[in-house]
């Protein structure tokens, strides 16, 4: 009887231990499954962004309507054309197989991130500089256009770059622009005349009120396109890398964009688009 009782007690203890181990195993499995579920959910959410675009059948892209060469709306035809538009069409072709499967929506520097994050657009392709501050709000693609501060001068000017600017040079710029601060740091003592906007500054340059106009070269290229008597000179002397912005965490969309950019550069289409709008091949 004693052995029988001991055996029974041992059996009960063994069964209890097995149940505890099984219970722990189930809890671990649940925990692991939950982790996998979260990862899958994250991937699912990520891939859903691409799936949503495909289900909709068109890519919604935020672009500028007022930036010559990059995104400019023709008031007569209503068409929006420019470097950013051609890049956007290439992305639509990569994702949807049709460059015309796209809807362009106007954004400004102020509205582009809010419109992106509230779901009005899938991405922003609008001369948007990649900055650490912006990375806190959105994710960026690889650099698709390397911009920087440059100089616009009348053709034949002795100024061929920042090295030709002295304290006796009269520079034109826009009030409140960082380009004013930059040029003063580059050339201490330089004379700077500030205007309310770049168009007024350009008019002043053409009227002979200054020797050069300075700002982001993307803007300057547009001005040069307006008047062939003026040209952008020298290498950029600040770094302004443009990126394509998507909602934070949408890595599948970022990958689709980066894959598109890689393809365009590999097959020569990027150089063709660049030359078409900027008038020269990109620097290598």
UniProtKB/TrEMBL annotation:
Residue ranges of domain Solute-binding protein family 3/N-terminal in the record: 58-281
Residue ranges of coiled coil: none
Pfam families: SBP_bac_3
Residue ranges of the TM segments: none
InterPro entries for the chain: Bact_solute-bind_prot3, Iontro_rcpt_C, Solute-binding_3/MltF_N
An example Gene Ontology biological process: amino acid transport
An example Gene Ontology molecular-function term: ligand-gated monoatomic ion channel activity
Signal peptide residue numbers: 1-29
GO CC list: extracellular region; membrane; outer membrane-bounded periplasmic space
UniProt entry keywords in alphabetical sequence: Signal, Transport
Domain called Ionotropic glutamate receptor C-terminal: residue spans: 58-280
Family of this protein: Belongs to the bacterial solute-binding protein 3 family.
Protein name: Amino acid ABC transporter substrate-binding protein
